[in-house]
Amino acid sequence: MKNPRTMALLYLVMWQERGVPFGQAWKGFDWATMDRLHEKGWISDPKGKAKSVGVTPEGLKKSEELFRKNFAL
Asked: Which tens digit of pLDDT belongs to each residue from 1-51?
């Protein structure tokens, strides 16, 4: 995977709203990387005026896995 740390860092800027089955994350990362994450089905389409993207259940699982692998002690 190219840029695995970006997906791991999404875990840090992610939140979940009550009643919503997926997470949200700020999209302040490189656009090409965000497009790749969208192509993999881990986030919603980053194009648009919204300042955040939806994170799919698969994306949430992957982001937590990569966060623990890259940053956990």
From this structure: 677 889 999 998 999 888 777 889 998 899 999 999 999 999 999 999 999
Nearest to 11 by CA among 72, 51, 1, 35: 72
Contact 41, 71 (CB under 8 A): no
- d(C-alpha 20, C-alpha 4), whole Å: 26
Enter the DSSP assignment of 41: T
- Classify 53 as helix, strand or coil: strand
Q: CA 28 to CA 44: how far, in whole Å?
A: 14
Q: What is the DSSP letter of 43?
A: B
d(CA 56, CA 62): 10
